[in-house]
Amino acid sequence: MVALWQATLLWLLLLLLPLRQASYILELRKVLLQQLNGSSAEFEAWSGRLSEQLSLEQQQRLAWNVNFLQTPQSVQQLQQLQQQLSPSASAHNTLRLLLWLRFYWQLQRSSAQQQQQLKVLLPQFALTLRAQLEQRSPKLRAQLQNMLQSLPHTLATLASSRYLCLQHARELLYAEPAGVLQLGANSNCSMWQLHATATHWLRLQNVCVLPATWYVNMQLSNMLLTAPSNNASKYCVQDAQAYFEQQQQLKSDDCNWRFTDCTHLQRILNLV
Questions:
Q1: pLDDT digits 0-9 by tens, 189-214
Q2: pTM of the full predicted structure?
Q3: Rounded Cα gap, residues 45 and 246, in angstroms
Q4: In principle, which of 33, 141, 234, 263 could form an S-S bond with 255, CB 3.0–4.6 Å?
Q5: Do residues 194 and 158 touch, judged by C-beta distance below 8 A?
Q6: Contacts of residue 190, Cβ cutoff 8 Å, sequence gap at least 6
């Protein structure tokens, strides 16, 4: 009964929003923030019901009238809010997605301090965006593409690519399996397919040698690691020779890589 009453109240408030009455907007914000204090499952059920009851325009109006940053918050608090708002696998819960987008854009347009906090949250935003780009309708995909274009280049590439080519940042050689380095990316062995794993890790699997695998920590997105752990060995190159580095505090340019979208190479080679 409480959930039904809150949904009805929100529907009435949305009808009155064009009148720009501050009291109604404040009440709407209170109801939403109360829901955020519950469990993720409860918030998913509540936002899912509203997604079915409200038009897309009404959902956008609701989302864009919520101020998630009205009071100062720590990085940990922002991470908790990010996790609570992160859209689920259900393509039908559009309201939760729109609230998540609203939170992201508020951080993007916030104070200098909050901009620094956003840098900590960006890898998880990019990983979630990757999943959403694969399943959303064209209407919402346009908003997701706007978000994609606002991300730093490397994170945007990791969020949107199906296949990557791995080029050493300094020596400009491309990684292939078994320590092979090539001057160009011109075969399927230059292609690495992306797979999302737990939290902020991506697994890169070679197309022609399936056991060949690298892992990328989206928080340290310019390195190739042998396992999904920051303690794993790094794949490095010096004087055109590949080697593994185990020093965890390494700051050498030997281990920096550039990731480029190689999906077009798949079409050229006519791979399945």
A1: 999 999 988 678 999 999 999 889 99
A2: 0.83
A3: 46
A4: 234
A5: yes
A6: 165, 174, 175, 176, 182, 184, 262, 265
